[in-house]
Every structure is written in C-alpha cells, then in structure tokens.
Amino acid sequence: MRLKYLIIFFIGLFFFAQKTSGRTIPEIIDVGIFSGESINRFNFTVTHGRYLVCNNQHEKLLEITPFSTITFERRGNQFNIIRNDSVLFTEIDIKLQGAAFHNSFILNPSNRNLDLRGYDGDLKIDVENGSFSLVNSVPFESYVAGTVQWESGFNHHDIFYQVQAIIIRTYALRNLERHSHEGFHLCDRVHCQAYYGKSTEASIIAAVNRSRGEVVVDRNDNLLNTVYHANCGGETVNSEDLWTEALPYLRSDKDTYCTDMPGAHWQTTIKANDMRSFLQRRFGYNPTENEWKGITGFRQSSRRHFMDPGERVQLRHVREHFGLRSTYFSVLSDGENLHLTGKGYGHGVGLCQEGAMQRARHGHSREEILNFYYRNSSIIYMETKEVW
Ligand SMILES: [Zn+2]
Ligand SMILES: [Zn+2]
After folding, report:
1. What is the tens place of the pLDDT at every residue in 273-288?
2. Of the residues 102, 131, 154, the one at which a domain ends
3. How far is the CA of 331 from the centre of ligand 1 (A)?
4. How far apart are the CA of 260 and the centre of ligand 1, in A?
5. pLDDT the model gives residue 117
6. Which ligand is in closest contact with the Cα of 346?
C-alpha cells in the first residue's frame, strides 16, 4: 500500500513539475521605448546605481555615475556621445549596462511634446530610419509595475492592482513575439500595453510584488488573451462581436458594478448629414425614409451589434468613424443633429476596469473578479527564469 501511495505521489509531483516547468517568465524583457516618436537628441541621467557605456564589441567606453548626465545626438546613421559640451565618442550602436545591484535612469528627449521618463534596467541605443531606436532591457516585474500605473492610474484598491498586474503579466507573456522582427519583445504603446516608464507609486509596486509570477489561464493551462477596457457600460461584449474569434472565456455578461463610475456615461452630437454620408461612403447604403427613422431613433437597452435592420452597419465601425467612446449608445434626432447618449468607455471585451475596481472595494477576491470577466479562469504561478 505504501508503495502505491509513493508512486501516486511521484506521478503527482511529475505532473506538477510539468505544469510549472514547461513555461517560465523571462527575468528581463526588451521593450521598445518612445516607439513611434522621432528622437534625435536626448539626455541620459543615472538616478540609481551606475552604468557602463559599451560598444558593440563589448568594450567599455565610459562609466556614468549617479546624477551625471550624458547627451546623445544623432548625426546621420551615427550618434555623438557628449559630456560637458564635448563629443567623447561617435558610435552606431551601444548599450548602457547597469553595473550595480539596482540601476535606474531618466531619459529626457529634446522633443518639446515629450516629457522625461524614468526606467529600470539597461538601455540599447542605435539609429534606425533617421531617428534613435531605444530599447529598455527591463526586469519583467518592473515592466509590469510601470504598465499597471500607466494602464490604470493612482489611488486604487490593492486587490484591483493585483488583478491588473496578473492580466498585464499574462498579456505580455502571450505577446512576447509581437515585435521580434524589430529586435525587441513589446512596444511601449497601447498597441501592446502602455509603458511610459517605471512605476513611482509604492502601493502599485507592493501589489505587483504580492502577485509576483501569477498569470491567468484556462482549464488547459493556456494563458488567456486578457483584453481589458475602461468601462463596459453595464454589459460586456463577446469576443466574436468585436473580432472574429469566439473565445469561451470572453462572454458577454451584465455588469452591475461599473454603472456609477466616471466612464459609465457619455454624450455627443453629430450632424445627421455626416451620418448619411458615412453610410453612403462606407457601405454604399442609402436608407429609405423608414430605415432612416430607425437609424435616427436607434435605441439600445441592451447591447446590439448593428445599427440598421438589414445588419449592414456594424456599430464598431460607427464607433471607429466618429471616434465614439463605445458602441453602446442610443440616438435622438432633431432633424439636423443626432444626439448620442452612450454607456461605457472602450471596446467592452474582457475585464471592465471600473467594474473590477468596484468589486475589489466590495471585498471580491482576485479569483472572483477574474472569473467574472474571464469565465472559468484560474490563477497559476509561473517561475521566473534566471538569466544567470
Ligand atoms: Zn506593440
Ligand atoms: Zn463594467
């Protein structure tokens, strides 16, 4: 009997090991920063630790100590490294490598529309398509904390921050290949997830630490496509109603927790003629008088997908064209203008951030919140793969 239990124990151990050892979280990921911006000159200031400036032969050119600033200025396909107004080196690509236990820096581009940003980790610099290409090699959990801050803001409940960290971590791991052709994992824009620098907020960093390594998976342990939006307006959206794939965990449901939150309501006015020309140009659709009445008196008590009875005009295209906050709106016409009264903010698929915030304040657990927005999901822990 004992042997039997021992065998079961070892089989169990084997499967447990399979579950967690198959995939790991990289300790460091490469994020393209200031992506999409044309930067030709910036200052680099060390805020923690010290940095070695290394060329592509791994030769150390320079050491930068805290609070000293180096300027990088592009000259064609090369760039100058400048200190105290004198050019020290001219290079084509370099790496600024942290040499202490904890290393962080500030980047301050000369572009007037860009503010300075702080980062942890290393920085790779080269020139591509006539501007600097900057890649932050950042400890994964520091990336998560920065992204939680930029994607959800300040003063939220610890449980909400943990939920946000879990889905940001999951989303990042699922999309690590997205920019592989450009030489990094993720960009720093909403195309991937907004990451405009490291977190400065202790409560966010604490929540990320408390949920360290945790991701959300389906019953087969596959990482979920953890999409999220600001406010669903009281009803979330099926994945196939926005995209094409019907995912079993992204199902439409009534959400009673977000309907009094800041993103719950909106109003706007558009010209009736603009709607007519949009229908005509986009769909070649000239509504009959009766159909036009239906469109100008369009109502949604619960979510619909089309604006017209013939199901030609998808609401997501209307939202896109007129830059509306959501597809969940009703129309009132005064003949010349269409007055739109809408609910929610964002595409409505997956987690509703303002609903999740309220659920956290009402004492819901992380599992309860995640299970409401991602059906039959569970949280698992993934090991971090050490680089050294
Ligand atoms: Zn991206
Ligand atoms: Zn909601």
Report:
1. 999 999 999 999 999 9
2. 154
3. 35
4. 32
5. 97
6. 2
